[in-house]
Amino acid sequence: MRAVTYKGAGGNEVIELTDRPDPKPEGDEVLVRVRYAALNPADLQQRNGDYPPPPGAPVDIPGLEVAGEVIAAGPRALNVAVGDRVMGLVAGGGLADHVLVSERHVCAVPENLEDLAAAAVPEGFITAHDAIRSQAALRPGEILLVNGATGGVGSAAVQIAHASGARVIGTSRTARGRELISELGGIPADPETVADVVHETSVGRGADVVLELVGAPNLASDLAVLAVLGRVIVVGVGAGAEATINLRALMGRRGRLFATVLRARSTEEKAVAVRAFEREMLPHLASGDLRPIVDRIFPVRDVAAAFDHLEFGVKQGKVLLDFGS
Predict the structure, then answer these.
(1) Can you give the pTM of this predicted structure?
(2) Which end of the chain has fewer surrounding CB within 10 Å, N or C?
(3) pLDDT at position 325
(4) What fold is seen in the domain 2-121+266-322?
């Protein structure tokens, strides 16, 4: 198999495209043949040495998600068969053209979804669904604010909230990004004036849920626009991880501030997140109500350029590697 590997910690100089023996599935694992693989900010953090893989995950092959065709199955894989198209989560090893994954961490790819689109689903959509629906308990009629609404998780959250009957406000600093938010069913806002948009949309009540994908610099404004009994859930900290919290602001709204990750969860917890997404959101993917957003596709030989674009580019949706080119 071909795999993106790290030969240490650092910048793009540590990235190599390597040939490895094809892995063999054991237990409830399935082996998925991959055409397209998606990059995630966690891959950058692992490359930099800031985010080591959890125990049991490949130590030098990054990648948090998989989509493709099952070509082999372990003896305890009873619900997925060779030939099935699947997508799901891995703790590492996803940036390869053959990926091992537990059958409990995958779900079926709808027939109408092409391989390219399926590769842009798992990490972004399952993370967004788990954060805003399973944890923050966003309800129909409530208002969700998504800070950083044009990336993989953000664009998924806008669509999931809209499909769930909530009103959603998304922020982007670019006119192109705000146009995308509107196309996905959200109310676009510039980060500098988002408080006014929340005030107008909620008639002064505030946002019931804030999905924070930017990080610490937004925390004060998140609390300022929060409704009574509102919830702030932090998923991304790309702009900074340390902030001063005004506890009086949080107390005055009887609000909740919490954070989440998927990668480090136990096998059971990750399976629960996948099944919840499958149950609630897969029908919306099948109907076309949800659509994965692909920003750019890079041939796998240009993996360093793909990482540069992920780190420094202005993106809308997912950045993919093409292992077939």
Answers:
(1) 0.97
(2) C
(3) 82
(4) Quinone Oxidoreductase; Chain A, domain 1 (3.90.180)
